[in-house]
Amino acid sequence: MEIKVLEYKKNRLKFELVGKTHTLANVISKELWNDKDIAVAGYTLEHPMTGNARMVVETHKGDAKEALRDALARLKKKNKEFAALAKKLK
Fold first, then answer.
1. How much is the pLDDT for 27?
2. Which one-letter DSSP state was computed for residue 11?
3. Residue 79 belongs to what domain range?
4. Could you tell me if 57 and 68 are in contact, meaning their C-beta atoms sit under 8 angstroms apart?
5. Burial class, 66, CB count within 10 angstroms (exposed 0-12 / middle 13-18 / buried 19+)
6. End-to-end distance of the chain based on CA atoms, in angstroms?
7. Which has the closest alpha carbon to 63: 83, 39, 84, 85?
8. Number of structural domains the chain divides into
9. pLDDT, tens only, 42-64
10. Apex 75 CA angle, 71 and 80, nearest 5
């Protein structure tokens, strides 16, 4: 997966998920909102069939990149927990 940083300031990050659309962008956006320091978290698609997800993250305080890293770490942990539960279904 390729990530293109479009804009970065300490409390604002705009980036593009190349080749990704709603599925990944929506999960990341929703997880970011679990952080009390998030002011803005969302994404847009220019076209649902051919566009890349463009995401924006803004924080009230702290670094936007760190907030994104923290959200991704939480998602990774949730994914591992879900995979362990799925293995028990066999």
1. 97
2. T
3. 2-88
4. yes
5. middle
6. 30
7. 39
8. 1
9. 999 988 777 899 999 999 999 99
10. 150
Residue 51 pLDDT: 83
Q: Rounded to whole angstroms, how far apart are CA atoms 74 and 50?
A: 29
Q: Are 43 and 26 in contact (CB under 8 A)?
A: yes
Please spell the DSSP secondary structure of 48-90, one letter per residue: TTTPPEEEEEEESSS-HHHHHHHHHHHHHHHHHHHHHHHHHT-
CATH number of the structural domain spanning residue 25: 3.30.1360.10
Q: What is the pTM of this model?
A: 0.89
Q: What is the pLDDT of residue 10?
A: 93
How many of the other CB atoms lie within 10 Å of CB of 48?
8
Residue 19, by phi and psi: left (phi above 0), alpha (psi -120 to 50) or beta?
A: left
